[in-house]
Write a structure and sequence with these properties.
With 427 residues, the protein is of the alpha+beta class. It is 29% helix and 23% strand.
C-alpha cells in the first residue's frame, strides 16, 4: 500500500508568494525564464533554473550552476523570504483553470478545479513499484535534477501524482477548503492557486491512515524529478551507516490528486515535410487506414477516440481510423498516438524515433488548434495532426500492466507552481 507522510514545509511569506512562485523548470527555456525573472531576485527561477544568472554560452550542467541555485535559495532564506513550519503538516493545493483556457469548452462553462494533498511519498514505494510510472526518463535530464537535489539537499519542486480517489479524503479536503487559504493568487497565465495548511494532529493522522488504503499511486507529471528524488535518497541512505528508515531523505515532495479530478489535454504533432509525397498522394495513402472527410478551413477538433484531425495546405480533415488499425484490448494498441505512429509517421513519413527525429515537433496543452494552423501556414511545418486526449483510465491501465507510453502522449494542465513549499532531506 502507498505511503504518505507529513513534513515540515519550507514556505514563502504570504506577502511574497506571488513574486516567488513560478512555473516548473521544464515548461520553458532559459531565455523565457530569464525574461520572466528579470529584475526580481525573489523569482524562484533563480533556484530551479539558475542558468539564467550565467551567460548564454555557459554550460547549463556545470557544477557552478547547481551551486548557484543553492546560493540563491540560501540568500532568500537569509533575507526572510522563506520560513519552515515548526511541525509536520499536510497541505492542500487547489488549482482553478477558467473554461476559456481549455480547448473545446465555452468561456461561460464552469472552471476546471483540482485539489491535491501535498505530502511526502516514500522512495521505497518508488523502488517497489507502488509508485507506477508510464514514461521513460532521459539520463541527461535525470542527472540534472539529481545534481540539484545532491547540492541543495532539498526537493525544490513537487512531483505531480494521481491516485484512485478515496471518499473520506475527499470529505477532509472539502471541509478544509471552506476555510480561508494561506495563499491565494492568480498567476499571469490565468490559473488561480490556493493553498491551505493542515496542522491538526487528528486530521493529519486520519489522512495518513486513509491514504494507506491506496494500493498504487501514479506519476502524472514529473518522471525525471521523481527518479532524481528517489535515487538521491538512496545514495544518502547507502552512505549512512546509521540509517534507520525514518530519515527525511527516505521521502520526497509530491502533490497527490484524485484521479477523477484530473484532466489530460491533447498532445499534438506537427511535421516538416511529407517525405517526398505530394499532398494529393499523401491523402491517397492515408485512405488505406482512415476514412477521410474534408472539414474546410475552420479548425476541426477530434470528438472521440480513434478520430484525428489533420491540417494540410489550408484545409482541415477528419481522419477516422478504420477497424483493424487498432487494438482496443491492448493498453498500448488502443492509444491514438500508437495508431498515428504505426499507420502514418513510420510507413508514410519515415519518422520512427519520436525522441530524436528533427522533422517532428509536439504542441500540447493550452496552445490549441490555432498554434497548429500557425506553424503550418508559416511554412515552418507541412502538416499537423490533432489527437483526442488520452484518458486517466488509459494512463492507469498502461502503468498497471508495466507498459510505457509512447513519447509525448500526455499533457496535464494546470501545471504545479514551484516555490510554494519545499522539503528538506536533512530534517
Amino acid at each position: 500500500m502507498a505511503t504518505l507522510k507529513p513534513f515540515k514545509g519550507i514556505r514563502p511569506k504570504k506577502e511574497l508568494v506571488q513574486r516567488i512562485a513560478c512555473r516548473p523548470y521544464d515548461v520553458l527555456d532559459t531565455a523565457e525564464a530569464r525574461a520572466e525573472a528579470k529584475g526580481d531576485p525573489l523569482s524562484f527561477y533563480h533556484v530551479i533554473k539558475p542558468e539564467i544568472d550565467f551567460p548564454d554560452d555557459f554550460n547549463p550542467y556545470a557544477p557552478e550552476i547547481y551551486k548557484k541555485g543553492k546560493e540563491n535559495f540560501d540568500r532568500m532564506v537569509k533575507e526572510g523570504a522563506f520560513f519552515k513550519d515548526e511541525k509536520e503538516c499536510y497541505y492542500i493545493y487547489a488549482q482553478s483553470m477558467p473554461a476559456s483556457m481549455i480547448p473545446g469548452l465555452q468561456p461561460d462553462d464552469d472552471p476546471h478545479v483540482q485539489y491535491g494533498i501535498v505530502g511526502c511519498a516514500s522512495i521505497d514505494d518508488y523502488f517497489n513499484d507502488i509508485i507506477k510510472k508510464h514514461e521513460l526518463t532521459r539520463p541527461d535530464k535525470e542527472e540534472d535534477r539529481k545534481n540539484h537535489v545532491r547540492v541543495s539537499k532539498l526537493n525544490y519542486e513537487p512531483v505531480f501524482f494521481a491516485f484512485p480517489h478515496v471518499k473520506r479524503l475527499d470529505e477532509i479536503v472539502k471541509t478544509t477548503v471552506k476555510s480561508v487559504p494561506e495563499y491565494h493568487f492568480t498567476s499571469d497565465e490565468g490559473i488561480t492557486h490556493s493553498f491551505w495548511v493542515i496542522s491538526d494532529d487528528n486530521i493529519i493522522q486520519e489522512i495518513t491512515r486513509e491514504f494507506s488504503k491506496v494500493r498504487y499511486t501514479y506519476v502524472a507529471d514529473g518522471h525525471h524529478r521523481t527518479a532524481a528524488a528517489a535515487l538521491v535518497g538512496k545514495e544518502l541512505r547507502d552512505a549512512n551507516p546509521n540509517h534507520t528508515g525514518k530519515e527525511a531523505y527516505n521521502f520526497f515532495l509530491a502533490v497527490h490528486f484524485p484521479d477523477n479530478q484530473l484532466r489530460i489535454m491533447d498532445y499534438n504533432r506537427v511535421i516538416k515535410d511529407l517525405n517526398g509525397l505530394s499532398a494529393f498522394d499523401f491523402i491517397a495513402a492515408l485512405k488505406e487506414s482512415f476514412e477521410i472527410t474534408d472539414k474546410g478551413t475552420h479548425p476541426y477538433r477530434p470528438s472521440k477516440l480513434h478520430e484525428f484531425s489533420m491540417y494540410l495546405e489550408g484545409r482541415w480533415y477528419s481522419l477516422q481510423a478504420r477497424y483493424g488499425t487498432y487494438n482496443d484490448n491492448d493498453p498500448i494498441g488502443v492509444l491514438d498516438v500508437t495508431i498515428l505512429s504505426e499507420r502514418v509517421l513510420a510507413p508514410l513519413l519515415n519518422i520512427t524515433d519520436l525522441r530524436k527525429d528533427k522533422r517532428i515537433d509536439f504542441v500540447g496543452g493550452l496552445r490549441g488548434l490555432e498554434e497548429l494552423k500557425r506553424r503550418v501556414d508559416s511554412g515552418e511545418m507541412k502538416v499537423a495532426f490533432a489527437l483526442y486526449p488520452v484518458t486517466m483510465k488509459q494512463l492507469i491501465d498502461i502503468a498497471d500492466t508495466g507498459n510505457i507510453m509512447p513519447p509525448k502522449t500526455t499533457w496535464f494542465e494546470p501545471k504545479l507552481r514551484s516555490g510554494l513549499v519545499l522539503h528538506s532531506l536533512e530534517d
